[in-house]
Structure formats: C-alpha cells, structure tokens
Amino acid sequence: MKISYLGPKGTFTKMAVDALFPGEEAYSYATIPQCMDAVTNGEMDYCVVPVENTIEGTVPITMDYLIHQAKLPIVGEIVIPIRQHLLTKNELELSEINAVYSHSHAIAQCHQFLHTKLPQAVTHATSSTGTAAEMVAEMEEPAAAIGNELAAKEFGLTILQEDIHDYANNHTRFFILANPAAKVPETIVSSTNRKTSLYVTLPRDYAGALHQVLAAFAWRNINMSKIESRPMKTGLGNYFFIMDVTCEAEDILFQGVQQELTALGCSLTVLGSYPIHQYEKKAGANL
C-alpha cells in the first residue's frame, strides 16, 4: 500500500499514518490537495488529511477540495490528541526568540502563550508544523517552531517548552480517503464505532427548509454529531450543509431519511460511512 500525507515528516498527520498503516510506504506532500490528487491519479492508494480541530474547527481546504474536486470516499477516521511544543535549534531564552513558525492552526492554538511569553516574536504561517520544524532546523537566527515530539526528533530540535497550547483538551480528526479500487486494510475496518458523513443541498431558500431536513433525522432518533454550512460557490447566500451522523448509511432508518429528503426536493450525497479510531500512544513508541 502507498499512503500520501501532509508532510514533511514530523506532522500530526504522519502520526495518524503510523498508527493506521504501520510499516507501509508513506509519502509526504506539501499541500492537502496534492495528497488527494495523488490518490485520484492512482499514484497512491490512500491519503490521510486533517479535517477538524477542537479549537479551530473545520479545515476548510480539506472539505472544499473533497466535495468540489477530489470526490474520494471516506473509509476511516482517527482522532489524535494535539500537544504543541516550542521547538528551537539550540537552548535559548524566550526573550531571544524573534520569530515563530508553524501552521496557522497551530499558531492559533497557542495564541495565549505567544501573546504573553513571546510578545516580541513575529509569527509566520507555514504549510505544516513539520515544514516549520524543518525550516527552523536550517536557520542560524534565533527562531522557534511550534510542533510535536516527532518533529523535534525528525529534525534534531530541542523542546524548549512543552504543552504551549491554550487548551488541554485539544484533538484533531483525520480522514482516511481511498482510491475506490483499493482494499481497506483490517487495521482500519476493525473499529466497531462508526459514523456517516454526508452533505445536503436544499432545493431553494425558504422558511423552514433546514428545519424539515433536521426533522427527518430527529423523528427517527438518528443522532447528528455535527452540522456545518459551506458555500456552494455559485453565488452569495447559496450554501449546502455538511453533516455527521452516528449511524451507518446501510441502516434502514438512514435510508428512510434519504427517501424523505428526496421527496422534499433535497439532494443528499454520502461522503462515507466509516469506522472511528482513537489514537493511543504505545509504551516505548517514538511518537
């Protein structure tokens, strides 16, 4: 199997890949769309991409590219606890650091620390936390990266200060997207916890339209764990709704929802019905 992920090495996405595809070939790509394109083009069998964070919410590029461009099936999900550390090339005093590099989400997750402990430092957004660590490892000036233990290990950086994120209960969801011809490995399908992701387009904007959609799930007692509106990109005020529900698409009640929404003139598209995994760090692991 070949798996693409948002790289370089040292990202939280790589942690997700190592947990779900131990020992398989993993290839890093610079952007999330490139990860998906590699699967669409047949270069890779799977890709692992971040989709939602506890603090920053949805990763828009993932959902927009998945729905409008790549259209790959979701075959699994893993939730990774996020611990952000301040990484430097050498031992430094905080007052010596004049620049901090990381992904925009990681910078936002550490806003209070940066505001109070590093007010003199200018923040710079990078494509990933791993890229930030790689950049800082090559710099001569006193700069820092925000990243994880894996990034520090991969690029020979010092963890100057641990757990600098603002909120302790910080997690990120990652989707596993597959080439339709690929066989999903047992390490992914083994989980008994399952979820279905879908999006719904309303026939037109009218009073009570969204209420009718939600009611189709509610009276069947189907729990909706997430709902979010996203622009259709066809004009101002035109939106569709992305939903996660805690049942399988094959469930007879879910099929009833599909029939009811079709009768209302709505369009419902299932993005995937898949198992959910929780990341657990194994004793002695390098992650």
Automatic annotation (TrEMBL):
Any one GO BP annotation for this protein: L-phenylalanine biosynthetic process
Domain (Prephenate dehydratase): residue spans on this chain: 2-179
Keywords from the named record: Amino-acid biosynthesis, Aromatic amino acid biosynthesis, Lyase, Phenylalanine biosynthesis
InterPro entries named among the record's database cross-references: ACT-like_dom_sf, ACT_dom, Chor_mutase/pphenate_deHydtase, Preph_deHydtase, Preph_deHydtase_CS
Its EC number(s): 4.2.1.51
CDD domains: ACT_CM-PDT, PBP2_Sa-PDT_like
Region forming the signal peptide: none
Domain ACT: 198-275
Pathway field: Amino-acid biosynthesis; L-phenylalanine biosynthesis; phenylpyruvate from prephenate: step 1/1
GO cellular component: cytoplasm
Feature type site, description Essential for prephenate dehydratase activity: T172
SUPFAM superfamilies hit by this protein: ACT-like, Periplasmic binding protein-like II
Catalysed transformations (reactions): prephenate + H(+) = 3-phenylpyruvate + CO2 + H2O
Superkingdom as given in the UniProt entry: Bacteria
Molecular-function GO terms, alphabetical: prephenate dehydratase activity
PANTHER family, sorted: PREPHENATE DEHYDRATASE P PROTEIN (PTHR21022), PREPHENATE DEHYDRATASE-RELATED (PTHR21022:SF19)
Name this polypeptide is given: Prephenate dehydratase
Organism encoding this protein: Terribacillus saccharophilus
